[in-house]
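User: Predict structure, ligand adenosine-5'-triphosphate.
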Amino acid sequence: MDAFDNQTKHDTLIHDKPDSLTHDEKSPVLEISGLSTEYPTPRGTVHAVRGVDLVLGKGDILAIVGESGCGKSACLLSIMRLVPPPGRIVKGSVKFRGKELLALSEAEMRELRGKDMAMVFQDPMTTLNPAYRVGEQISESLRVHRLLPGFPGRLLRKERERERERVIDLLKQVGIPSPEHRHLEYPHQFSGGMQQRILIAIALACRPKVILADEPTTALDVTVQAQVLDLMREINEELGTAIVLVTHDLGVAAEFCYKAAVMYAGQIVESGGIEDVLSSPLHPYTRGLLKSIPKIGQRRELVPINGEVPDLTDLSEGCSFAPRCREAYSYCERTSPPLVHLKNGRKVRCHLYT
Ligand SMILES: Nc1ncnc2c1ncn2[C@@H]1O[C@H](COP(=O)(O)OP(=O)(O)OP(=O)(O)O)[C@@H](O)[C@H]1O
Ligand SMILES: [Mg+2]
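Assistant: Predicted complex:
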């Protein structure tokens, strides 16, 4: 796999979703509604996620974009029920294949994590244990979900051999060179990019139905980034795994994702097909972020907008973006805009469309 192969493979600016993966609205894999998460702090309560609604069908790939501090990570952590206390989910529903996750016990949630829904965190070293060989960490994840038999001490030679092959295979899949030797190494013996790929190998090990990836490629160089994205796409196409990708890179979002959701101050302010959102953004916030359409193969970061992200402990009654919005009128400062549903599945939270 080569980064540049990947770039030349797509000759259009934004590719269409393959027909075989058409979103099945009737049976979403992940259905989130009214999700709200807060972090109590000495300064007051941070309203990090405020009434987020998202629906992902089999094979969907959704980009979540937005400035730093808008609640993207808090949203993914909430979906996995991994919000660090005293932070907590205060409202809403997260359904995975129709099952309400917010009603499950912690033990049931642990069973589901990794096996059905996996998360790739931005910083690999927060997830990898420096004291264990990477091969052991991958087989541990397979064992936890009973994809490999019981305790390592009790495994038969044949079973141990099969486990070793599976681990080597996964490392090979994520492009780790000489996996037959390197599965015996410790995390610090790998570069940051390789550590990230090992995490992705762990996430892919159980062939989950949903992968939540929080800026998985930000720290990687372009070649490795393309390998990681190619790998996630292969899993998506082969198994129909739904993917949520948080990214600051609009080039990556345009190339890799089918849908986009734009987050601001804990809310989704605009969503729709990736092509629609990137080529004709509706919300003044999205328009501010996307000063121009990204081109394939070119890293295009979000453009800073004048003013600051609001303090999430002290939100006003009106539209959170109004203080920075060139198109705001006095009504916007007083009243919070509803989510307006437009054609082609587009949604926007702005008084310009009410
Ligand atoms: N553990 C925590 N305790 C208190 N506040 C937190 C905690 N984690 C996040 N926050 C706050 O919640 C809000 C949303 O943070 P979050 O990390 O979700 O932003 P983000 O969109 O992922 O930003 P970035 O692009 O920088 O990763 C921010 O105001 C942040 O300061
Ligand atoms: Mg984040």
